[in-house]
Amino acid sequence: MDSKKRYDVIIVGGGIMGSTTAYYLTRKDPALKVAVIERDLAYTRASTTLSMVNARIQFSLRQNVEISQYAFNVLERFEDDMTVAGQRPRISYHREGNLFLYEEAAAIDAKAALAMQQALGCQVQWWSPDEVKAHYPLYAPEGLAGGTFGAQDGHFDAYAVLMGYKANARAQGAVYVEDEVTQLAVDKGRIIGVKTGSGATYASAVVVNCAGAWCTELAGTAGVDLPVNPVKRQCFCLDTAVKPDGPLPLTILPSGLYFRTETGGMVLLGKSMAEDPVGFDFTWDQNRFMDILWLELAEFVPAFERLKLVRGWAGLYAVNTLDGNAILGEWPELKGFYLANGFSGHGLQQGPAVGRYMSELIIGETPALDLSIFNPQRILEGKPLAEGGLV
Question: How would CATH label the architecture of 3-76+158-227+322-381?
Fold first, then answer.
């Protein structure tokens, strides 16, 4: 392989995972030669930029909560810490809360997760239906057991955060290449580099799979079988006739329907459904909203019965079919091949902690946050992480 294209670390995928990993690697060791190979540097189909965007602390697995706690700290300081060459990112970080609503059958698990979150110092409360109604008068929570409200949860400008990490990684020496990795190069159980669609070859003893929804395709070129599927998720932007008095939190109904207000008085809405197709499909269907989701929304928020569908879009979740959690670390059967995959819709908010963790594993540092529970060994053994309540 061409010595001019030899790197210490090659990262496949320049979205949030690839860019945070590149940022932390080059910050920890400025002498490292790091290349990020991304098929589309405009990020038109990247899950990072097509996300409805959420940062929440409400998980039932302790490590997921700790990952979010780190993200909260990073986002609070992001605009100051990530200013580079006089360019200050504007990430529009709004902490308007997340409200998870529960039926009686799910309340026990929700309260157990709540107790764990509170023990870790998280600002999360249990609200009765009356308290939900008092805070958000447009809602009709009658018949529900109640909900958990995380006051520190919120949303931000995903593209601005991504560009902030990318700009800093490049300033620290990382090289971004627009090309598609089509083949992982392997020799005697070790990774030795990659080949791309343009015909280029890049040599490295460390390759990090940050390919998001395309991670399984990439891993398969080296004979690695990942239980991660690209699943289409659709989002809709609504202009309601009745406007709430203030911002609405990301509100998640027991059915899985979720919505929140956006800048300009719009409402964003989505729902993951069992029939969502697997594959690389970016079309969106207005009938999905008109025939199914609108009725469900109007039942919970009667004032939203009158509205206009402004637009919709579709992106991809990289769904870990084993347990819905991240796969982090070196693949046990292929030396030098690292995975940061399978985030199942949580990746954007988990990017800061995961990027730091991947850099620590690669450099050989003791991780600041022990995320070994997400080790790929469980994939080989078929042993899902056990947890109740929120994934």
Answer: 3-Layer(bba) Sandwich (3.50)
